[in-house]
Amino acid sequence: MSEEIKTITSVSDILCNVMKIEEKCWDAGMGESLFWYRGHSDDTWELQPTVLRSTREEDYANTVNQMESFRSPNKWDDVLKHERIINQRFRHGAYSYFGDIPAIRVYFAAQHHGLPTRLLDWSLSPLVALYFACRSERDIKKNGCVYRLFPRKLPKVYDGQSNNPPSPFDDIVSKHRPHIAEFIESCLFDSQPFNACAGYKQLKGIPVIPIIPTIITSRITAQASRFTFHLPVTQSGKAGIKPPLDFHKIFQGEPHSFAQYIVPANAKTKILVELNRLGIHDYSLFPDIDNLALHLKTIYCSRLVYQPLKSP
User: Is a pLDDT exceeding 60 seen at residue 236?
Assistant: First the structure.
């Protein structure tokens, strides 16, 4: 990566060091961060949506390949077929919760409830990302990381718009690029979305689309959520879909648009304590009864997060 990797060992590091670049790029008219953040509890994880990770592709492809009628020569075609199946099943099973709202909004909710999708979660808050880099007890002995993304620099997303780029409060899907919403829904329901969607030609060469989601669940609000939608990209002159691009390749030569910060394993417990005292914890990010109980159990019963303040 072209930008030097920094290390975060405390909340003050991310507030003082990482936020310095925000001061240079602050949107004076809105006062909202122009950067999006994401945390990984293991810094070796792929920066890809669940559906497109190499660790999952064979599982999805093998599942589909057991059904002869679904088999295709390209494993990525199989992966996306599998996504369409489980998305349709989710929409059917969750109808009593969501009713007849647009499919793309159900897709946002599905992502936040753990369904494999081509959406990748981001947050406007670096503290939320830092929490996700540290929270996993399973990975507490592994280095984590926080990614910083400048979504306005994603290739070709804003090309040809009269308002270039739009303000950070504009919903990229529903207002500025209505054909994007059409194409995402086509990906979810059509076996050949490239032929079914009239707007696909406008999306050629765009590997990733930044999305400000509709607030369909409390988790989206609590986590200051943003998404990137990773398009299936057709191979030039060939049938099928090519493997997804990662952000390191997309932002090659763009050092200020994408960065990774390492969170050492030995700093995670201290950071969790600091974040807990700042109100960043499971219950604040997943505001439901189960996580209220988990939060109380953690602060009163777990030595990982609850550490009494020492007398001065």
Answer: no
What's the pLDDT score for residue 8? Answer: 94
Same domain, 268 and 308: yes
Secondary structure letter of residue 176 according to DSSP: I
Tell whether 224 and 240 lie within a shared domain: yes
Residue 272, CA atoms < 13 Å, CB-side half-sphere? 25
Tell me how far apart the alpha carbons of residues 274 and 140 are, in angstroms, rounded to a whole number. 16
Give CA–CA dist 60/155, Å, rounded: 29
So what's the pLDDT on residue 74? 58
Give domain status of residue 286, yes or no.
Answer: yes
pLDDT (mean) for 281-287: 87
Q: 179 and 215 share a domain?
A: yes
Nearest alpha carbon to residue 210 among 225, 220, 198: 225
- Would you call 149 exposed, middle or buried from its count of C-beta atoms within 10 A (0-12, 13-18, 19+)? buried
